[in-house]
Amino acid sequence: MKRSRIQRKEVLTLAVAVVLGVTWTAQAMIPAVSGPVFNLTAREGYIQTPDGGSYYMWGYANGAGIMQYPGPTLEVQQGDIVEVNLRSELEVPVSIVFPGQVGVTATGGQAGLLTREAPANNGGVVQYTFEATHAGTYLYHSGTNAELQVEMGLVGALIVRPQGVPAGEKWAYNHADSAYDHEYLFLFTELDPVIHEQAQLGLWDQIDFTQYWPVNWFINGRCAPDVMLPAHYPLLPTQPYNCMPRMHPGDRLLMRCIGAGRDLHPFHTHGNNFLQIARDGRLLSSDPTLGANLAMSDFTLLTAPGETADAIFTWTGEKLGWDIYGHAPEDPLEPGEYAPDHGKPFPVNLPDKKDLTFGATYSGSPFLGAMGTLPPGEGGFNIYGGYFYMWHSHNEKEMVNNDIFPGGLMTMCIVEPPGTPIDMMMP
Amino acid sequence: MTTLRKVMAALLIFGVIAGLAIPLEAAVKTQYVPDTDPEDSDGDGDPFNDHVLIHMAAGDGFANMADGKLQYIFGFTDVTGVPDGMIIMHAMVGADWPSPTIRLREGQKLYLNLTNVGMMVRPDLFDPHTIHWHGFPQAAPIFDGVPDASVSINMGSTLTYYYNVVEPGTFIWHCHVEATEHMQMGMLGQLYVEPRQNMLPDGTDLNGFTHHTGYKYAYNDGDGSTYYDVDYPIQIESFDPAFHDASLTVQPLPFAMMDDKYPMLNGRGYPDTTKPYPLMNTASDEGWPDRESQKIDALIEAVQGQKVLLRISSLSTTENFTLTVAGIPMRVVGKGARLLRGPNGEDLSYMTNSVTLGGGEAKDVILDTTDVPVGTYVLYSTNLNALSNNTEDFGGMMTEIVISAP
């Protein structure tokens, strides 16, 4: 049966993940640790992938916490003097480099190739200090034996929040062109299980990166559909971050994208183009007073290893030629509704239900905020009747979990009907 | 293939439909609403021709690679105008590679019918299909073609998509059901929309550039900066022969080990890219009728002095590729179906010798042949290992640009 390739268990897991991701934590803020002083410890641990994989990893832990993949998202204010204290409880030394930051000084620890390192087996502390002069989205990762340690999981995001933002607004950079309503992190990595199995067994001499062959792909440390479970989900203790972007029509959604692995990933947003406003922590601008005047609209963002990009995504459903709410002409307008399409009928007849295969997140109705009847066992996982858009790597090979489709570098962005609660804090 | 085998295959699908007690015609049903409103939304002077009917059939088929290897494929073929009752018989094992190019004009309204004609070579499969218009602005899920978020059409039936075409540019279309599999297997096509600016009255002044009837532009640039004489859609694709062979021989599909060996432009490896005629497959090697499945070539021809618009897109499912034109400068004027221009009119177009595309990207490139000597030039991938047809070490992602004397 062809349907079973998308196994029933996978479909159920996806659906449950979406429901939990939407109702439980649904934070509009990006979960992060606030600075400007951070205490990180490199520890070992295991992560889980939806294909049943369990992989030995190294990761940065926050203080006395457990290892996490990716490392804690560090949040500071523009102008802060950032201080990161690092220890290594691994049997190897570890360090941190901060691409894009200027004037990083390292003290303590022991000498290393790219920077000073925290000695192995908790042999000391290395301290990194820098001034976060520019707002934006940045990457941090180990600078020690980086080809191995980055693969093992020693990566993370750094967010520098801009100064001078008017009260009540949220900006990514020092200009209103970077204003947003919701923000989400998209940190892309990949994994070759052979490397991790060899590391787990201590077979360091056998690790051969010329044979590198990734078969799992991650957003924020989780493969789809786990990526749609809530953040800080108890069954994924070493993978605390999720990626479940949600918005209302007309909202501005900030995508903070980071290429944290060694491969490029073309990230495609279904639903609309995004506007890329920044690259590598700098607004695409020819003059600070002109804002993001070099911004580019696109439907696929090719993120390169070590590169960060910020983009604003919006969706209104305008000019489709039919009323997306299924209104009759005399019904009132929804907030932000494209008035010229109000009341226009749905333009085609959908086939009979037995001629269709239904998606797990289809509400049963083509209209926003509406539900429709579905055959038994179908749907039921779109609790607000929102519009779901798959956001994914367009190298489709990367939408797989170790030979099992679907999975990998994929999530869903939900455009919820106006008024749906999104900015809920975790209980 | 023997007539008996073909008849049995047809009976199989007819039997499945009949078993549901639904007449075949009712399940394969073209929908189209003629344009009766008096608004001339596409600007061509006729207010009653703004609606477009296209009918695609989705199924399986065969295509030969440039080294002769026959590959089993999934794909679409154009069945616009074929009577509903004949579509399945007409299109079975008849997929094109790549899928037909969809050409539209800004202001048109498209009724895109999709009939799933089943996979006769693999009668154990009953995959549904969808059409995803990649890059359609403000898309609604019901017409976006992502099966998890909406609906997909089962074998023997028809789903009609509706698009109000408001954005010009170079797009992509493909099936999104079991995307890794169906896209690797070849359900990939090109799509572009010509801008409304093409329809301006003769003599219109565009900020110093004078428009004349017949002039074409890539976007509504307002100044003629994306004017071109001839355009060529060029799509990057690649096949993994192990994957296609596993599909043909009912083996587990190698998703994790997917490794493309046939890099292609418009569904062909060099020298097939330069053959300006349809190519017949050798499906008879597998017992099915031979068909002209590769209808699109990649030969680019222009007269010296002309501007050539290359509508470049990529649908490789595994890798990113870089293209260059040796001897002709390239100017990138559009990206992601948008003119490269800032909000205050900043010109973001740029000259280059290379364009890099990951899967799902599209870029508009203009070649200005004004000072280019007459002759034959090469558009090729600078991923030099891609200049091969599997183990045949000269071929692959390369085609020719022939510039003739005025």
Describe the structure.
The complex is a heterodimer of chains A (427) and B (406). Chain A has 427 residues and is mainly beta. Helices cover 8% and strands 29% of the residues of chain A. In chain A, the strands form four sheets. In chain A, strands 10, 11, 13, 15, 16, 17 and 19 form a seven-stranded mixed sheet that branches. A five-stranded mixed sheet of chain A has the order 3-2-5-7-6. In chain A, strand 2 and strand 3 form a beta hairpin. The radius of gyration of chain A is 22 Å and the shape is globular. The two termini of chain A are 42 Å apart. By secondary structure, chain B is mainly beta. Chain B has one domain: Immunoglobulin-like. Chain B is built from five helices and 27 strands. The longest helix of chain B has 17 residues, at 3-19. Chain B is globular, with a radius of gyration of 22 Å. The chains are: A mainly beta (427), B mainly beta (406). Strand 20 (356-358) of chain A pairs antiparallel with strand 6 of chain B.
The gist of it:
The complex is a heterodimer of chains A (427) and B (406). Chain A is mainly beta.
Known CATH architecture of chain B: Sandwich
Task: Provide the gyration radius of chain B in Å.
Answer: 22 Å
Kindly, what is the distance between the CA atoms of the first and last residues of chain A, rounded to a whole number of angstroms?
A: 42 Å
Strand and helix order of chain A = HEEEEEEEEHEEHEEEEEEEEEEEE
Give the termini distance of chain B in whole angstroms.
49 Å
Total of DSSP H or I helical runs spanning 4+ residues of chain B: 5
Main β-sheet description of chain B:
7 strands, mixed
Query: What's the structural domain tally of chain B?
Result: 1
Give the integer mean of the pLDDT values of chain A: 93
Mean pLDDT of chain B: 94
Q: State the major sheet of chain A.
A: 7 strands, mixed
What overall form of chain B do the CA principal axes indicate? globular
How many distinct helices of chain A? 3
Measured by residues with Cβ under 8 Å of the partner chain's Cβ, the largest interface is:
A-B, 68 and 76 residues
Which structural category fits the helices and strands of chain B? Answer: mainly beta
What structural class do the secondary elements of chain A suggest? mainly beta
How much helicity do the residues of chain B have? under 10%
The CATH topology of chain B corresponds to: Immunoglobulin-like
Provide the low-confidence segments of chain B as ranges.
Answer: 17-26
